C-alpha cells in the first residue's frame, strides 16, 4: 500500500488530483483506515505493533502528499506567472480623447456670446402642450400657420415642440409682469419632415427674447448684427426682409453678407451675396397680453436661429444628416474648434 500510494502521488497532475488521493488514502473511509479493520483478527501481542505500523504508514503518506502539494503549488504558480507575464516593451494602446459635437460647439458659442450681453440661458421640456407651442404663440387651432410646422403629437394635447418659441411662451408667463426679460433658450425641436440634405425631423434652435420698456426693431438689429459678426466675422453686414410669423409683428427674415465671398456672390450664397440666417420680429401684442403683460407698457423682440444652419455655414457642412449619423471621422474634424 505504501508503494502504491507513493506511485500514485508522484503521478498526480494537479492539486485536485492530489486532493482526491488524500481522500482515498487518508479519509475516514480511506484505504489506511480500512487496514484498521484487520486489528480485530490479531493477537493481543501483535496489536500494538500493527497499530504503530499503520500510524507510520499514515504519516508517511501524509508527508508524501504534503511534499507533492508543495511541488504542484509551486509549478502552478510558475505557470501562472508565465501566463500573466507583461511585455513591457510592447507599444502601449493609444487612448483617444473624445471631442465636443459640432452642434454643441455652436450652441456653447452662442450661449457665451449672449451671456456676455447679460442674457440668461433657459431650457424647457421637449414635450410641450399644444397651448404653449401654438395657442400662446398666437396660433389658434384653425390658424393656417399650424401647417407651417408639421408637428408630431404624442396625444391629443401634447406634442414634441416644433420650435423653441414654446420655451419663450413659458418664460413670458413665468416672468409676467416683471421687466426686463433677457433670455436665450436652446433646445431640440421636432417636425414631421422627410430627411434630406437640408431637412431633418429633429434639429436644434436657439430662441432669443427681450422684453422691456421701449424695445424696438433697432435693438433687435443691433443685437443680431453683433451675433452675425461674432459668428461669421467682423466685416459682416445684416439686412432685414419683411416676413410673417404669427407671434411677431412686424416679422423679419434676417440675412447676413456671405462670409465666403464677402457679399460679392458665390455658390454658397447662390450668387446673391446674402445668406438667410434666422427669423425674428417684435413680440406680437397678443402674445404679451396672453402671458400677462400690458402691450401698452412694454415691448420686446424675439428671434429663432437654427443651430444646424449656423454650423453648416460656419464649417462648410453640406448635409444636415452628418450631424446625426455619428460618424467619428466627421465629428473628429471639429476638435480644433473646441
Ligand atoms: N419659431 C420660428 C421658427 O421656428 C422662428 C422665430 C422665433 C421667428 C422667434 C420669430 C421669432 O421658424
Describe what you observe in this structure.
With 338 residues, this protein is an alpha+beta fold. It is 39% helix and 20% strand. It has helices spanning 2-11, 15-26, 31-35, 46-83, 102-116, 130-133, 165-175, 217-232, 285-291, 307-315, 328-332; strands at residues 120-121, 127-129, 152-153, 158-160, 181-190, 202-212, 238-245, 248-257, 274-283, 299-306. The strands form 2 sheets. A 7-stranded mixed β-sheet has the order 1-5-6-10-9-8-7, with helices on both faces. Strands 2-4-3 form a 3-stranded antiparallel β-sheet. It starts with a helix and ends in a 6-residue tail after the last helix. The structure holds phenylalanine. The site of phenylalanine (PHE) has 11 residues, from β9 and β10.
Topology summary:
Blueprint: H1 2-11, H2 15-26, H3 31-35, H4 46-83, H5 102-116, E1 120-121, E2 127-129, H6 130-133, E3 152-153, E4 158-160, H7 165-175, E5 181-190, E6 202-212, H8 217-232, E7 238-245, E8 248-257, E9 274-283, H9 285-291, E10 299-306, H10 307-315, H11 328-332
Parallel strand pairs: 1-5
Antiparallel strand pairs: 2-4, 3-4, 5-6, 6-10, 7-8, 8-9, 9-10
Helix pairs in contact: 1-4, 2-4, 5-10, 7-9
The chain binds phenylalanine (PHE).
Catalytic activity: tRNA(Phe) + L-phenylalanine + ATP = L-phenylalanyl-tRNA(Phe) + AMP + diphosphate + H(+)
Pfam family, one: tRNA-synt_2d
Cofactor: Mg(2+)
Amino acid at each position: 500500500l505504501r508503494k502504491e500510494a507513493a506511485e500514485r502521488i508522484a503521478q498526480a497532475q494537479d492539486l485536485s488530483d492530489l486532493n482526491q488521493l488524500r481522500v482515498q488514502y487518508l479519509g475516514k473511509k480511506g484505504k489506511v483506515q480500512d487496514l484498521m479493520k484487520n486489528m480485530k483478527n490479531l493477537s493481543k501481542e501483535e496489536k500494538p505493533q500493527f497499530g504503530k505500523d499503520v500510524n507510520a504508514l499514515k504519516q508517511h503518506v501524509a508527508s508524501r502528499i504534503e511534499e507533492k502539494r508543495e511541488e504542484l503549488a509551486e509549478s502552478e504558480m510558475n505557470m501562472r506567472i508565465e501566463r500573466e507575464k507583461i511585455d513591457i516593451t510592447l507599444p502601449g494602446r493609444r487612448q483617444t480623447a473624445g471631442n465636443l459635437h459640432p452642434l454643441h460647439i455652436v450652441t456653447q458659442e452662442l450661449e457665451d456670446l449672449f451671456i456676455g450681453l447679460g442674457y440668461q440661458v433657459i431650457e424647457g421640456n421637449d414635450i410641450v402642450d399644444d397651448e404653449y407651442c401654438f395657442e400662446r404663440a398666437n396660433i389658434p387651432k384653425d390658424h393656417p400657420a399650424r401647417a407651417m410646422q408639421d408637428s408630431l403629437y404624442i396625444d391629443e394635447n401634447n406634442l414634441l415642440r416644433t420650435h423653441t418659441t414654446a420655451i419663450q411662451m413659458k418664460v413670458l408667463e413665468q416672468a409676467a409682469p416683471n421687466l426686463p426679460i433677457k433670455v436665450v433658450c436652446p433646445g431640440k425641436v421636432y417636425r414631421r419632415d422627410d430627411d434630406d440634405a437640408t431637412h431633418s425631423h429633429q434639429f436644434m434652435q436657439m430662441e432669443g427674447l427681450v422684453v422691456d420698456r421701449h424695445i424696438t426693431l433697432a435693438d433687435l438689429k443691433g443685437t443680431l448684427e453683433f451675433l452675425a459678426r461674432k459668428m461669421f466675422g467682423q466685416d459682416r453686414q445684416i439686412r432685414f426682409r419683411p416676413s410673417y410669423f404669427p407671434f411677431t409683428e412686424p416679422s423679419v427674415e434676417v440675412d447676413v453678407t456671405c462670409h465666403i465671398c464677402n457679399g460679392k456672390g458665390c455658390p454658397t450664397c447662390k450668387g446673391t451675396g446674402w445668406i438667410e440666417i434666422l427669423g425674428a420680429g417684435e413680440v406680437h401684442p397678443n402674445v404679451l397680453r396672453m402671458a400677462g403683460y400690458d402691450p401698452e407698457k412694454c415691448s420686446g423682440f424675439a428671434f429663432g436661429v437654427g443651430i444646424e444652419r449656423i454650423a453648416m455655414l460656419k464649417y462648410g457642412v453640406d448635409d444636415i444628416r452628418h450631424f446625426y449619423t455619428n460618424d467619428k471621422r466627421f465629428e473628429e474634424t471639429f476638435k480644433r474648434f473646441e
